[in-house]
Specification:
Elements: E1 4-10, H1 15-21, E2 24-26, E3 31-33, E4 41-47, H2 50-62, E5 79-81, H3 83-94, H4 111-130, E6 134-140
Antiparallel strand pairs: 1-4, 1-6, 2-3, 5-6
Helix pairs in contact: 3-4
């Protein structure tokens, strides 16, 4: 168990959940298949980057985020990232301003370890937003 974090491109909010809910595991290819929906394109993955999780949770709260009744935490919550959000994240990563965040299964501070990967993600995500695509963050722990 632990904190897994993802960023992906999707045509609409909720597409990630729709894709997996309507997919069937293919034993031959060892992959999920879905002939109804298109799979969102993953552009970043982090394992136990707690301060990024804290930053995303703060952003979600600023945007009026309300946790689902079944899980009152920022866990499994899809968050759309705009150009301005990504620009702010870039500044915070570059200036080492991600909030110190702790949580069950989150691991230790990994900002230095992930810094270059964070900046590469931001660069990729900004390019996608510039092209009119939608970028989302989600996590599970």
């Amino acid at each position: 168990m632990g904190l897994d974090q993802y960023a992906y491109i999707a045509d609409k909010a909720g597409q990630q959940n729709e894709w997996y809910e309507n997919s069937v595991w293919n034993e031959v290819t060892r992959e999920y298949e879905n002939h109804i929906n298109s799979k969102p394109q993953e552009i970043a993955y982090w394992r136990k980057h707690p301060n990024l999780q804290g930053w995303m949770e703060q952003l979600w709260m600023e945007k009026g985020g309300v946790a689902p009744e079944t899980d009152p935490t920022f866990n499994g919550v899809e968050l759309e990232l705009t150009w301005d959000d990504l620009d702010r994240l870039e500044q915070d990563v570059q200036h080492k301003r991600l909030p110190q965040t702790r949580g069950c299964f989150f691991g230790d501070d990994s900002d230095d370890y992930y810094r270059e990967r964070d900046l590469e993600f931001i660069k990729t995500a900004k390019a996608e937003v510039f092209l009119g695509r939608r970028v989302f963050y989600n996590s599970s722990w």
